Structure to design on (429 residues):
């Protein structure tokens, strides 16, 4: 495996469209996204990202003829849609100009928005009241569809900003009691800051995309069922370019908890009520959450050295079975000359690394693909922790010498192509 210090050196300083609209976890760095597109996505190619997240890889493919993204997380769907929304900068400027008077004249809401399934408070009472006034005000505006998407994405980031969530939190952790008492954010100011960022980006970059963009809220495991595939009518694709989750949502990033906190407010906006979801339902829909009935072809020991009797063994196996199902479907959606580019990592699970790079290559190899390259690069500019406390909430053991363990220090780019036009594809049961 070749090691690279930084394959995107020539692109440092450049960014994809609305790159910082929301602090979504584990995003591919801008320079890597643009470097991969420059290397592997020809102009006018069709691109599929089955784990599109906040849409950064798709946003890098500015000259593609077709960009299709899928994600099971409603917040990911919203952020990706917003990045490709053709909002008029003048309209965004008008919204910002109206915020100051709206802050003064907006009436107190009759009912408050906010999360209902949470066991602890994530917002102060004044913040909830102001968020409720903001929602009422935004719902009173006559916004276009594109403006609505942009405003909803900016509000979702605002919700995170004014919550008791730790700013650099990987999972959803609260500020300590002393910090919560001192925390006095203004939701109106935070929303204005987010929208001003969007305005500056739109004014600077404009509508820089060619071709067409399609974003689907759905489960990529459905790709393996061709007759029900959410993107069958758009393929075959020239390139699959994606950064899949490195493990099941419950034991890694916990997208559900953080996402549902934002969506608990955003879903009160007109036209976005379908985004209301609990953290548990989002996590269950991710890989390894609710596994499809699939017999594994692999030996777990080949990719993870933990004990078969470990409590982690079942979750790792479930995750890999789901991941394999996605790979199975992707083969059907790639053109005969298509390439698959995966950005993966070896995360630590139960004290042992999961060799997702090797599993990915083997998934495609057994379906008639050849590994073209595998390149490791250090993690940089990525919202993910280098160390975690493996004892979690067990306060009696948190300060022990072995509590802090490394997670991931690098990511690996795996590139695969069909061995031949009629590459022999052996399906798993």
């Amino acid at each position: 495996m070749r090691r690279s210090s930084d394959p995107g050196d020539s692109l440092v300083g450049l960014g994809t469209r609305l790159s910082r609209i929301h602090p979504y976890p584990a995003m591919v760095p801008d320079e890597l996204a643009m470097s991969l597109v420059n290397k592997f996505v020809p102009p006018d190619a069709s691109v599929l990202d089955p784990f599109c997240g906040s849409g950064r890889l798709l946003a890098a493919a500015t000259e593609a003829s077709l960009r299709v993204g899928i994600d099971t997380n409603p917040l990911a769907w919203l952020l990706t849609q917003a990045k490709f929304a053709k909002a008029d900068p003048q309209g965004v400027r008008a919204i910002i100009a109206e915020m100051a008077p709206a802050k003064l004249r907006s009436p107190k809401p009759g009912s408050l928005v906010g999360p209902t399934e949470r066991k602890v408070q994530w917002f102060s009472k004044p913040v909830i009241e102001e968020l409720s006034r903001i929602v009422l005000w935004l719902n009173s505006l006559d916004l276009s569809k594109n403006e609505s998407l942009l405003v909803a994405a900016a509000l979702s980031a605002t919700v995170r900003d004014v919550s008791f969530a730790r700013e650099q939190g990987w999972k959803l952790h609260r500020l300590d009691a002393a910090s919560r008492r001192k925390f006095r954010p203004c939701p109106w100011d935070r929303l204005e800051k987010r929208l001003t960022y969007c305005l500056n980006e739109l004014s600077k970059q404009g509508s820089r995309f060619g071709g067409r963009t399609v974003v689907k809220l759905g489960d990529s495991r459905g790709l393996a069922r061709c007759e029900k595939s959410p993107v069958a009518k758009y393929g075959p694709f020239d390139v699959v370019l994606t950064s899949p989750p490195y493990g099941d949502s419950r034991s890694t990033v916990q997208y559900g908890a953080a996402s549902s906190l934002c969506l608990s407010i955003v879903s009160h906006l007109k036209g976005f009520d379908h985004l209301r979801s609990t953290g548990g339902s989002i996590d269950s829909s991710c890989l390894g959450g609710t596994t499809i009935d699939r017999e594994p072809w692999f030996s777990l020991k080949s990719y993870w050295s933990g004990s078969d009797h470990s409590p982690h063994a079942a979750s790792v196996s479930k995750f890999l079975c789901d991941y394999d199902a996605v790979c199975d479907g992707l083969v059907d959606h790639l053109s005969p000359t298509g390439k698959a580019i995966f950005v993966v990592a070896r995360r630590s699970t139960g004290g042992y690394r999961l060799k997702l790079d090797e599993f990915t290559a083997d998934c495609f190899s057994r379906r008639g693909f050849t590994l073209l390259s595998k390149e490791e690069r250090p993690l940089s500019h990525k919202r993910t922790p280098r160390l975690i406390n493996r004892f979690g909430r067990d306060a009696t053991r948190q300060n022990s010498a072995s509590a802090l363990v490394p997670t991931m220090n690098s990511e690996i780019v795996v590139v695969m192509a069909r061995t031949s036009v009629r590459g022999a594809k052996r399906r798993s049961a």
Notes: The chain has two domains: 2-13+27-71+211-248+299-418, 89-204. The longest strand covers residues 334-344. The two ends are 31 Å apart (CA to CA). DSSP finds twelve helices and twelve strands in the chain.
